[in-house]
Amino acid sequence: MPDGALPVLDVKGLKTVFRTRGGEVHAVNSVSFHLQPGELLGVVGESGSGKSVTMMSLIGLLPSPPADVREGQVLLGGMDLLRATPDQLRAVRGARIGFVFQDPMTSLNPVFNVGNQIMEPLRKHMGMDRKAARQRALELLELVGIPDAARRLDDFPHQFSGGMRQRVMIAIALACNPEVLIADEPTTALDVTIQAQILELVKELRQKLGMAIVWITHDLGVIAGIADRVMVMYGGQVVEQAPVRELFANPQHPYTRALLKTIPKVSGEREGRLQVIEGQPPILSAAPTACPFRARCAHAFDRCHRENPQRRAIGAGRVGYGHDVACHWTPEVTHA
Amino acid sequence: MLTYMIRRLLLAIPALLFTSLVIFLLVDFAPGSPMSQIPLTVPPDVRARIVEALGANEPIHLRFGLWLYQFFVVEPAYLLDQMFGTTLSTGRQRILSWQSRSPVMDIIAERLPQTLTVIGLAYVIGVLIALPIGIYSAYRPYSWFDQIGTFVAMVGFSVPTFLTGVVLIVVFSVNLGWLPSVYDTRLRMTGWNSFVQQAGQMAMPVMVLALFNAAEISRYMRSSMLDTLGQDYVRTARATGIGERAVVLKHALRNALIPVVTVIALGVPTVFAGAIVTEQVFRVNGLGALLINALEASDLPMVQTLTFIFAVLIVLFNLIADILYGILDPRIRYD
Ligand SMILES: Nc1ncnc2c1ncn2[C@@H]1O[C@H](COP(=O)(O)OP(=O)(O)O)[C@@H](O)[C@H]1O
Ligand SMILES: [Mg+2]
């Protein structure tokens, strides 16, 4: 990725805290990342690592209270979304940033037919009348590969299978030709074969439409096939970030290395037993003053308990653009 | 849908017949006799003749059979005669009240308007108050608005209507003297003055019942709305950038209303039952008061007919609730 191209989305030092009865939960801590036009950024991390909260913070989708997006900047073409008015934000949501959520079974409104739900953002953002919006909705259903689209426009969500519903969700998200599509674990709730079909669809749509994509998953195996760049999250922080080949070839953070070991080998027999990462995800009750991974880390030493590591570049390039890691420890032998 | 409705109606028939038998037996076994209201000075042989004339000495199965025949054949026939000028019911005996010797249905028709205006208005007002309160409470949970709403609802729901009724009478009739404490059924609305009078005498019973209904329904609305506002599809709707009004009042409310509408429909017959107490407190001369008087006088045909009509209402509104559910929720299909 060339340094020079202007990112479509630039997130700097994002910090989100939940105020709960039991005290504060620091779900997202100083997360920074950017997205180049047409790029697919994979975001990985086990559940609870703050992936969804990060993305929902960007466009004000978290209910507040309890959520409080405290610090940071989210620049979309020069506008800071964290300082935008509610009206400005609404003009971005669904129009310039499309969202696909994890569970297609619950993410569509059961009492409205799918045509209606696709037409809604079209009428709101593109100022289309019913007829034009319906025509466009039909095209979108065809685009996302729903057979017999004309007849299915008036069907309700419960009349579709899980995979088909996720296609409908994608149609809604893409309705207004957004610059950015954020897909939050869009295939996690689906069967493996359906998952593969959705991945194929997204690859194809990316070719056709050219939007930039953030693809959230807890499965590095999915990322390998589609992402340009990968960002690994742990305990509400970015722990490692690199182009996809580099990350798989030369993982730096002990957590990334552990994640890579958990992927079953696609071909051939499995290498021994499927690995699990030992230990619990951290409780984020305060802004961290130590490495969040220290308790589960085999390489932790005294500095890890005193100081939360900053992201540092590996090799040439700035943090965020080449390969960077937030870890005090340096692997002696880098894997080829 | 249609076949489902017909099936439901057909299934309701044996249930209703059984209910009517149970009611009949209960009323018949209850202590008291139609004679208890007749002065003791009336000699026993005259009493016996009165009982005979009423048909009250017939064996129970004959009386039940007669009542069924009258309720399901004679009364509908009479209704048709009234509407189309036919003569289907001539020569057949309608259900007669033992107390007044006039047809039970005529008395009910006479009392129905009082009950409907007071109870019906109270229910409509209750619902209209409850829905916005419930929606807003759920939208801003634990805000001061919600806290006050919760408190008022708790009071309205837990304090019985006869108590709120009496308190209102003490305050507005006895102390302030603003409103009449007794409902004047003979009042006819002829102009502005009588309209104000009518509104005045309806105010308290309507208020008592509306408060009670609103308390219950607003709680249902709140919890249902709270539940839907947390659903994934509401988040999806927000993510499409449509306005907050559309998110709440279209996407969330449309789903939240499904169970609430059912509760409202199911509540209609129970409101009639609850009104019995309120009518008594405010001396509204409606169906509730009619039932109480009939019970006191052991007026079996009247009690039987009224309670049976209540039973029919319950079955009917159950069916209506089911149908509304099917209309509101596309996932429900009855075939
Ligand atoms: N409404 C909330 N209230 C309190 N904490 C929350 C809330 N939503 C999320 N969190 C916390 O934020 C953290 C990150 O959650 P999330 O972003 O959903 O994880 P991921 O998407 O990576 O699985 C979790 O530890 C979770 O406990
Ligand atoms: Mg998530």
UniProtKB/TrEMBL annotation, chain A:
It is a peripheral membrane protein. InterPro entries: AAA+_ATPase, ABC_Ni/Peptide_Import, ABC_transporter-like_ATP-bd, ABC_transporter-like_CS, Oligopep_ABC_C, P-loop_NTPase. One of its GO terms (biological process) is transmembrane transport. It is found in: Cell inner membrane. Residues 12-260 form the ABC transporter domain. One of its GO terms (cellular component) is plasma membrane. PROSITE patterns: ABC_TRANSPORTER_1, ABC_TRANSPORTER_2. It holds the Pfam family ABC_tran. Its main location: membrane. NCBIfam families: oligo_HPY. Belongs to the ABC transporter superfamily. PANTHER family: DIPEPTIDE TRANSPORT ATP-BINDING PROTEIN DPPD (PTHR43297:SF2), OLIGOPEPTIDE TRANSPORT ATP-BINDING PROTEIN APPD (PTHR43297). This is ABC transporter ATP-binding protein. It comes from Fertoeibacter niger.
TrEMBL record, chain B:
Keywords: Cell membrane, Membrane, Transmembrane, Transmembrane helix, Transport. One of its GO terms (biological process) is transmembrane transport. It comes from the Bacteria. GO terms for cellular component: plasma membrane. Its main location: membrane. It is found in: Cell membrane. Residues 112-321 form the ABC transmembrane type-1 domain. The chain crosses the membrane at residues 118-139, 151-175, 195-215, 256-277, 308-328. It is a multi-pass membrane protein. Coiled coil: none annotated. Belongs to the binding-protein-dependent transport system permease family. This is ABC transporter permease. It comes from Fertoeibacter niger.
